[in-house]
Amino acid sequence: NAPTTAAADAFLAAITAPGGEPAFIHCAGGNRAATMWLIKRIVVDRWDVDRATAEAAALGQTSPTLRQFAINYAQTHKR
What we know:
Layout: H1 5-16, H2 31-43, H3 49-58, H4 64-76
Helix pairs in contact: 2-3, 2-4
C-alpha cells in the first residue's frame, strides 16, 4: 500500500528503455501493476487523469491509496 517514488522511477526507466515494449506487467491482485501503468499513462503517454484512472480501474486498480500515489507521482514527474 505504500509504493516508493524509487519504484515508480525504476518502472518508468524500464518501460521507456529502448526495447522495453511490449512488456508483461503482473502482480497477484492487479492493483500494483495497474498503478504503475496508471503512472506510465499520465507521465509518458500524457493521458489525462480521468482517462488513465478509468483504464487503470478496468485493469484491476481498486486501491484509493495506490491511485492517489500514482496521481501525485505523475503530477510531480511530468515529462
